[in-house]
Design brief:
Length: 394
């Protein structure tokens, strides 16, 4: 039955609206109080990885990449509430979702670190964030410098601001040896990215977030590494292209890299940089080792594979450094890693006897045989082979 709208109805609606407004205001005040209480909550220092990740909401930017994916894999072992992967390419997310059997504690969000609004949505309720997305290729960044600034610097700023706004427990920024005394755009943007992360410790106020950085050398078997190209060149009968016969690099495996990231989650008090001690090898020796391993697999004699020197690429260094002598003033040495705390006061005694940095030019080199043993020991010989793209017509 239709009835006409009365004054009494209007009063009812007004009262309802007022009550609703009041409820909203009370909720807003409660949320603000909770945020204030959270902000005042002290930093937490988990003692075990279980404590660090169990029941936590974890976000990994670049979670489909070589490093991000392994972070996801290892963190899932500790029973987090959920791990969110944040990256741009939907196919990579689709493939990773399948590889991880659609597990319900792993979620995928399409997004760009440059897009602050989207990132903020992805970061809701996040307690621990690993920032592993970046433009990482020296040549690409050299020719697209502003894109490198947008992803590596502005993108990191967005990540830091999200960590501050949500008062996260921990932000781990993933960095590279190329950020140390940089000679190219990629390294320079990654150095700024490190600074953006570490500086947040200074202005975060009473928020609880620990902001830390870890630096890697070259990661064996990561996407875009030079090794698959060398193996393809061996398969094709050579020549194998080497930039310079004395080029030396630090090397580590993906699981080693990620173990360091997890160690940093426990040890960091905020404002520190973690650097794994890792072997150094000459790229020329790596190529000799690869020729010895793979030439027979492709029915060739190692002696028939020529190695051709093509010169350094723009912005490329002959040697890499993981820690400058200036940073070494603030470093503590542990069995398998260094911890650099640039925000702490310098020990005067160290100033009197300045330490050396950590540079691939000064470290002992792995021999060809040791490189072969390392690749075989880590099961990488078959991994590289399996990842090799088919050659058209073969
Ligand atoms: N691999 C190494 O040898 C090595 C050595 C030292 C340090 N590192 C550092 O480790 C980190 C990870 O390297 P990686 O080897 O894992 O690289 P990767 O395999 O190329 O992965 C990069 C990841 O970042 C994502 N990404 C790129 N741009 C993005 C953006 N604008 N917004 C959101 N996601 C983005 C990519 O996915 P989409 O393309 O789908 O967005 C991908 O998931 C980097 O910071 C790198 O500098 C790597």
């Amino acid at each position: 039955m239709n009835r006409s709208w009365s004054v009494a109805d209007n009063i009812g609606v007004t009262k309802y609206k007022e009550r609703h407004k009041l409820k909203e205001a009370v909720e807003r005040i409660a949320a603000a109080n909770q945020l204030a209480a959270d902000r005042l909550s002290p930093m937490t220092f988990p003692k075990t990885l279980d404590e660090a990740f169990h029941n936590k909401t974890v976000l990994v930017t670049g979670g489909t990449g070589s490093i991000g994916r392994e972070i996801v894999r290892q963190v899932l072992n500790y029973g987090p509430r959920v791990v969110r992967v944040y990256s741009r390419n939907e196919y990579n997310q689709y493939m990773m979702r399948k590889d991880f059997n659609d597990r319900p504690d792993l979620r995928f969000m399409i997004g760009d670190v440059r897009d602050r609004e989207r990132l903020m949505r992805a970061c809701e309720d996040v307690e621990v964030l690993f920032h592993a997305s970046a433009l990482k290729h020296v040549e690409v960044c050299e020719y697209n410098p502003f894109e490198a600034v947008k992803t590596n610097v502005s993108g990191t700023q967005n990540v830091v601001e999200a960590a501050l706004d949500y008062n996260m427990e921990l932000l781990v920024g993933i960095s590279t040896d190329k950020a140390v005394s940089p000679t190219n755009t990629m390294g320079a943007t990654k150095l700024l990215s490190e600074r953006v992360v570490l500086a947040a410790n200074k202005y975060k106020g009473d928020r609880r977030t620990r902001f830390t950085v870890i630096r890697f050398g070259n990661v064996l078997a990561s996407r875009g590494s030079a090794i698959p190209r060398f193996i393809q060149q061996i398969r094709d009968g050579g020549p194998v292209t080497l930039t310079h016969r004395d080029m030396r690099r630090f090397f580590m495996s993906i699981p080693q890299a990620v173990e360091l990231a997890l160690t940093a989650s426990l040890k960091s008090r905020g404002g520190d940089i973690y650097i794994l001690k890792m072997p150094v090898l000459r790229i020329a020796d790596l190529i000799s080792a690869l020729v010895e391993i793979y030439a027979p697999r492709f029915g060739r004699q190692p002696a028939e594979i020529e190695v051709k020197e093509i010169g350094l690429l723009p912005g490329e260094k002959l040697y890499e450094s993981l820690m400058t002598p200036e940073e070494a003033l603030y470093a503590s040495e542990f069995e398998s890693y260094y911890q650099v705390e640039p925000l702490r006061a310098v020990d005067q005694q160290r100033l009197a006897h300045p330490p050396a940095g950590y540079d691939s030019a000064a470290e002992p080199l792995l021999s060809k045989n040791e490189i072969i043993q390392m690749l075989a020991g880590q099961g990488l010989v078959e991994v590289f082979l399996a990842a090799l793209p088919e050659t058209v017509g073969e």
